[in-house]
Amino acid sequence: MAYALGLSPRAELLAVAVLLDVVLGDPDYGWHPVRLIGSTISVCERMLRRVGFEGRAGGVLLFFIVATVWAGGLSIAVVGAGSASRWVRAALHGFVLYSMLALGSLLRHGRRIEDALREDDVAAARQAVSRLVGRDTQPMDAAACRRAAVESLSENLTDGVVSPLFWYAVGGLPLLVLFKVVSTMDSMVGYKTPEYVHFGWCGARLDDAMNFIPARITWLIIAAAATILPGYSGMKALRHGLSDHGVLPSPNSGWSEAAAAGGLQRRLVGPIWSHGALVTDVWIGAASDPPLGTDTDYDRAAALVAVSGLFAAAVAVAAVLTAWR
Q1: Could you please report the per-residue DSSP string of 214-238?
Q2: Range of the domain at 98
Q3: CB of 297 within 8 A of CB of 149?
Q4: The pLDDT value given to residue 324
Q5: What does the alpha-carbon distance between residue 325 and residue 159 come to, in Å, rounded to a whole number?
Q6: pLDDT at position 27
């Protein structure tokens, strides 16, 4: 039934969407579906707070409203498009799928940081880093900017690439859009500040839950990619993903970041400042490995993330062909 309605995963559409994402990146325009999801979250948050739903109940209501509007609405749109033409339905399905993947855009943003550093413009690099991380960027030197870029690349490999692929392969377009609703909620309201500690609880916990399995898959995928790439270490990626993932406070991000550190044979994280205070100076990776910091280190990290993302896409296409044929 799901296949007949045009909502189930389509291997050929997934392959085309991944190719478009890598070649073109994520188009930057006001009507982008993820931007519209974010706008819906903002509008609904204001309405819920206005009527007194500012605690956990408000966050739960926010999720149900936005999920119904977007996961439900886009599903209805794709099904309805089939009444015009199966080609129109396939085009809409593929467009939504392409819009929910972020490997190309992720690599391009990391490249902007590296390009600024290679032009000795540390200020521009810090500004670009600030769009990726929630930490003070003013104390960062070039090496710290590179580490922050690589940490963001490896962390977002999970929630920007592997998780969307996973949920699409599991449940097609509705689950993919539902994941993006949850991910966008977490990025907008999932904070532990007094304003959001209760209201954002639902989005943050759902994001942890939906990234739980994909984060561990990403660990294995990075290790597999590091095994086949010359000069990387698949064994270190496996070992440090397992041993160091708990160093970071998130239940999920540490798996891919620690795996990247091990695979690259370079230490990551290091001193992090927030609101003018040093909040941590912990490192992940082998103590005998040097800190990541050179332009060559960045190029190797970007290659590892790119190969890992493409490998994840190939696995997802194969899974769809096997499970949904």
Answers
A1: HHHHHHHHHHHHHHHSTT--HHHHH
A2: 7-323
A3: no
A4: 82
A5: 27
A6: 75
Tokens of 206: 């759902």
pLDDT in tens, 98-147: 999 999 999 999 999 999 999 999 999 999 998 888 788 888 999 999 99
Task: Mention every residue, 6+ apart, whose C-beta is less than 8 A from residue 113.
Answer: 125, 128, 129, 145, 146, 148, 149
For the record, the structure tokens of 112 come out as 């902007």
Could you report the per-residue pLDDT of 257-269, keeping only the tens digit for each?
A: 999 999 999 999 9
245 secondary structure, DSSP code: G
On whether residue 2 sits in a domain, the answer given is no
Strands 268-269 and 272-274, how do they pair?
A: unpaired
Nearest CA-CA partner of 100 in 188, 5, 32: 32
Residue 221 lies in a domain: yes
**pLDDT tens digits along 217-267:** 999 999 999 999 999 999 999 999 999 999 888 899 999 999 999 999 999
Cα dist from 236 to 232, 248, 286, 292, whole Å: 9, 18, 8, 15
Could you count the other beta carbons within 10 Å of the beta carbon of residue 141?
A: 12
Show the 3-state SS of 97-124.
Answer: HHHCCCHHHHHHHHHHHHHHHHCCCHHH
pLDDT of residue 1: 46
Residues 45-60 have pLDDT tens digits of 999 999 999 999 999 9
Total domains, the chain = 1
List alpha helices for 33-141, DSSP H.
33-50, 56-67, 73-81, 86-99, 103-118, 122-130
Does a structural domain hold residue 1?
A: no
Distance CA 83, CA 162 (A): 32
- In total, the chain counts a number of residues equal to 325
Q: Which residues contact 303 (CB under 8 A, 6 or more apart)?
A: 229
Q: Is residue 261 situated within a structural domain?
A: yes
> For tokens 């660990």, what's the residue?
219
